[in-house]
């Protein structure tokens, strides 16, 4: 995919990553999909002491504004615990 940072899709991905990184600094964040349907995978050591629901809610909270604003229509979130 050769989107420039000026494209709406690239700008949305950068926004999502920035929002999640501000809550989980240093997390590995992978995005797939398009603006309508996003698959988000976040790997962070901060998830170690959280329940599955808490992990999902904490990532969802980062992007809730984008969902309610219509930038993202559907999202699938995967959370993984990193070793460090």
What does this protein structure show overall?
This protein is α+β, with helices and mostly antiparallel strands and 84 residues long. The chain has one domain: BolA-like (GMP Synthetase, Chain A, domain 3, 2-Layer Sandwich). The chain is 39% helix and 24% strand. It has 2 helices and 3 strands, in the order αββαβ. Strands 1-2-3 form a 3-stranded mixed β-sheet, covered by helices on one side. Helix 2 (52-68) links the parallel strand 2 (37-43) and strand 3. Helix 1 (8-23) packs across helix 2 (52-68). The longest helix has 17 residues, at 52-68. It is globular and about 35 Å long.
Question: Main attributes?
Answer:
globular; 3 strands; alpha+beta; GMP Synthetase, Chain A, domain 3; 84 residues
Percent of sequence in beta strands: 15-25%
Shape: globular
State the oligomer.
single chain
> What is the top-level CATH class?
Alpha Beta
* Helix segment tally: 2
The major β-sheet equals:
3 strands, mixed
What can be said about this structure in brief?
This protein is α+β, with helices and mostly antiparallel strands and 84 residues long.
Protein topology:
Elements: H1 8-23, E1 28-33, E2 37-43, H2 52-68, E3 74-80
Helix pairs in contact: 1-2
């Amino acid at each position: 995919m050769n989107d420039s940072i000026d494209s709406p899709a690239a700008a949305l991905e950068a926004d999502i990553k920035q929002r999640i990184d501000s809550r989980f600094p240093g997390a590995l964040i992978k995005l797939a999909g398009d603006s309508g349907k996003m698959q988000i995978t976040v790997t962070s050591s901060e998830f170690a002491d959280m329940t599955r629901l808490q992990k999902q809610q904490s990532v969802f909270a980062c992007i809730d504004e984008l969902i309610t604003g219509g930038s993202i229509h559907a999202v699938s979130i995967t959370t993984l615990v990193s070793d460090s």
